[in-house]
């Protein structure tokens, strides 16, 4: 436990939340903590394929958006260029949504873990695939946390994040670690 905690501290991932009502900041910081705990303590590996694909789409979006602003044709005559850029922007956003929906099945992150299992003294190589998502309820301070491994049923936790967020704006890592460990233990029981 001490070794992964030192790695976690040295990784520079611990971020202070300046505004606890900023939903995306809370979700992202919490998810970074969960990802670090899954990869260091529980030996999962993050699959970055969808992240890479979505970054490629975002790169093309970053090219399309300025094109609609920086061109030499004056306004009344540039409606076609603006229309093409807007259509391309929405098409690429649609591709991004489809990537996240069909590859991640509405989850934020995917992880794998090597887990050898014995079946009548035959060693079988098995890769567990774990899906993870955290959403913050807009009208409360409740984080909805979802874990799913392989084809097992989803594990869901509701956590009031004000209970795991200190007064100075840092998440209490021990409490997040207990949530993640409980989820991994429950998933491992379902796999057996």
The residue-averaged pLDDT reads: 76
| Number of helical stretches of at least 4 residues | 5
Spans of at least 5 consecutive residues with low confidence? 4-12
Please summarize the sheet with the most strands. 5 strands, antiparallel
- H/E element sequence: HHEHHEEEEEEH
- How does the helix and strand content classify structurally? alpha+beta
**How many angstroms does the end-to-end distance come to?**
25 Å
Could you tell me the radius of gyration in angstroms? 21 Å
What topology, given as strand order, has the largest sheet? 1-2-5-6-7
Strand content: 15-25%
Number of strands: 7
User: What sort of overall outline do the alpha carbons produce when their principal axes are compared?
Assistant: globular
The helical percent reads: 40-55%
Layout of strands and helices, then pairs:
Layout: H1 2-10, H2 23-40, E1 45-47, H3 49-67, H4 79-103, E2 109-114, E3 117-119, E4 122-124, E5 127-136, E6 142-149, E7 155-160, H5 173-191
Antiparallel strand pairs: 1-2, 2-5, 3-4, 5-6, 6-7
Helix pairs in contact: 2-5, 3-4
Q: Descriptors for this entry?
A:
192 residues, alpha+beta, two-stranded antiparallel sheet, 5 helices
Structural commentary:
The structure is a single chain. Strands 1-2-5-6-7 form a five-stranded antiparallel beta sheet. The protein has a two-stranded antiparallel sheet with strand order 3-4. 47% of the residues lie in helices and 20% in strands. Helix 2 (23-40) crosses helix 5 (173-191) and helix 3 packs antiparallel against helix 4 (79-103). It is α+β, with helices and mostly antiparallel strands and 192 residues long. The protein is globular and about 65 Å long. The chain has helices at 2-10, 23-40, 49-67, 79-103, 173-191, and strands spanning 45-47, 109-114, 117-119, 122-124, 127-136, 142-149, 155-160.
């Amino acid at each position: 436990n001490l070794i992964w905690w030192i790695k976690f501290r040295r990784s520079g991932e611990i971020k202070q939340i300046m505004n606890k009502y900023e939903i995306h900041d809370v979700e992202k910081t919490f998810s970074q903590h969960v990802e670090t705990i899954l990869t260091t303590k529980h030996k999962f590996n993050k699959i970055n394929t969808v992240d890479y694909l979505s970054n490629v789409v975002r790169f093309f979006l970053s090219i399309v958006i300025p094109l609609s602003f920086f061109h030499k044709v004056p306004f009344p005559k540039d409606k076609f260029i603006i229309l093409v850029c807007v259509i391309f922007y929405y098409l690429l956003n649609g591709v991004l949504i489809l990537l996240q929906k069909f590859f991640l099945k509405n989850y934020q992150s995917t992880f794998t873990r090597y887990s050898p299992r014995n079946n009548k003294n035959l060693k079988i190589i098995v890769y567990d695939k774990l899906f993870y998502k955290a959403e913050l309820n807009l009208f409360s301070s409740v984080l909805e946390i979802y874990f799913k491994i392989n084809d097992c049923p989803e594990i869901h936790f509701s956590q009031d994040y004000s209970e795991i967020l200190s007064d100075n704006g840092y998440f209490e890592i021990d409490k997040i670690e207990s949530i993640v460990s409980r989820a991994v233990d429950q998933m491992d029981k379902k796999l057996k």
